[in-house]
Amino acid sequence: MREAAELPLPDELAQQHSEQLKTLVRAEIDAAGGAIDFARFMELALYQPGLGYYSAGACKFGEGGDFVTAPELSPLFSRCLARQCRQVLTGIGFGDILEFGAGTGVMAAEILLELEHLNCLPGQYFILELSSDLRQRQEHTIARRAPHLLARVCWLDGLPESGFQGVILANEVVDAMPVHLVQFQEAGQVERCVGHNGRDFIWQERALASTECQQRINGLIDELGDEVFCPGYLTEINLAQSAWINSLAAMLEKGVALIIDYGFPQHEYYHPDRTTGTLMCHYRHRAHGDPLILPGLQDITAHVDFSALALAAHEAGLDVLGYTSQAQFLLASGLGEILAEQDQSDSRAYLEITQQIKKLTLPNEMGELFKVLAIGRDYDADLEGFLLQDRRNRL
Ligand SMILES: C[S@@+](CC[C@H](N)C(=O)[O-])C[C@H]1O[C@@H](n2cnc3c(N)ncnc32)[C@H](O)[C@@H]1O
Fold it and tell me: Which of 132, 173, 304 to mutate to test the pocket of ligand 1 (most atoms within 8 A of CB)?
């Protein structure tokens, strides 16, 4: 990981943009009496309308942006996901797809093209996107890559309240949800909050104010033992994901949600050696650990606790249908067959595809750190993507 001092300097326009956001956040900190919890800081930094990292116009994805996600890296990822969608859509007879946080729209376009090729298009492809800037970008991408399928795509302002049948997709969405930062001390836990010194943001310790956060901490100590959390141990608690799962449960009548992200089951996430948590920032393809700088210009993420997600799903009345690594999921979802269909006489294109497969599946690339969790309702068949390996017993 880089030192923050080694990062490239933003240009003047970007600095002005960041200053605007800083002024707004400082005012909120003052109004709150000197500090806000980190989850609120992260929410403002990423989602403040017009100014937050995901709400404003910066490039973000791909080579010219800050990071590359799997659908940006290769269409193979989306084509494999499409095959898993096909099994569910044909299994339930007919249904829609709903994608959360659709990035540039490339995954939506490739999934639709593959489902068309497989003769299994969904009724509609809904996208729920918090950023109006990204909505426009998604529309543009789909209009360019799959113009004849654009009419099937529908952008939602909120979740359907109930009655959804089909497949829900969320790739690298949960890692972008605001998290609380909790530090363990000899005498209990404190919350790491954000204050300011008149110009820059600084860390402030406060008593843990959220009872929900305290309950989650107590549950972790009961489950894992307090010897895991040595004095100074810093970690994240994602409360937003439980509310998100509850809203999925409320709308899902029949079908499956596939949640893909980097993370671990609880005993690996809250490992005694992981004493500084998993919070990470991305700025122009440099990863570093200081979320208080470059507000509005850099991505802030935390790894996903898949056990907590699965538990939230179970408590919301959903079934946990599968959990495995991205590599095992893609291989079980037809990655090999898609490769076999490629024209090997074009050696350059073939080499490129094999390089993409390596990045998606090798354990030291995305293959092992990224996981796929399937949750659902009223869906009984074994999901194809988990037939090679299902690690639900590790959750
Ligand atoms: C790292 S990007 C991933 C984009 C895309 N899925 C991809 O794989 O390229 C995270 C996305 O999640 C979205 N997001 C975060 N929380 C969300 C929520 N509660 N509902 C919908 N989208 C959300 C953000 O707006 C952003 O577009």
Answer: 173
**Residue 235, ligand 1, Cβ within 6 A:** no
- 369-to-87, 179, 260, 321 alpha-carbon distances in Å: 25, 20, 11, 20
Q: What is d(CA 33, CA 28) in angstroms, rounded to the nearest whole number?
A: 9
pTM of the entire predicted model = 0.95
Nearest CA to ligand 1 atom 7: 103
**Which of 130, 136, 298, 304, when mutated, tests ligand 1's pocket best, judged by the most ligand atoms within 8 Å of its CB?**
130
Q: Is 72 in the pocket of ligand 1 (CB under 6 A)?
A: yes
Atom of ligand 1 nearest to the CA of 131: 25
Helix (H, G, I), strand (E, B) or coil at 269: helix
H or E element: which one contains 236?
strand 234-237
pLDDT in tens, the chain (395 residues): 555 657 888 888 889 999 999 999 999 999 999 999 999 999 999 999 999 999 876 667 766 777 789 999 999 999 999 999 999 999 999 899 999 999 999 999 999 999 999 999 999 999 999 888 889 999 999 999 999 999 999 999 998 878 999 999 999 999 999 999 999 999 899 999 999 999 999 999 999 989 999 999 999 999 999 899 999 999 999 999 999 999 999 999 999 999 999 999 999 999 999 999 999 999 988 899 999 999 999 999 999 999 999 999 999 999 999 999 999 999 999 999 999 988 888 889 899 999 999 999 999 999 999 999 999 999 999 999 999 999 999 99
Q: Which atom of ligand 1 is nearest to the CA of 67?
A: 1
Q: Are 153 and 129 in contact (CB under 8 A)?
A: no
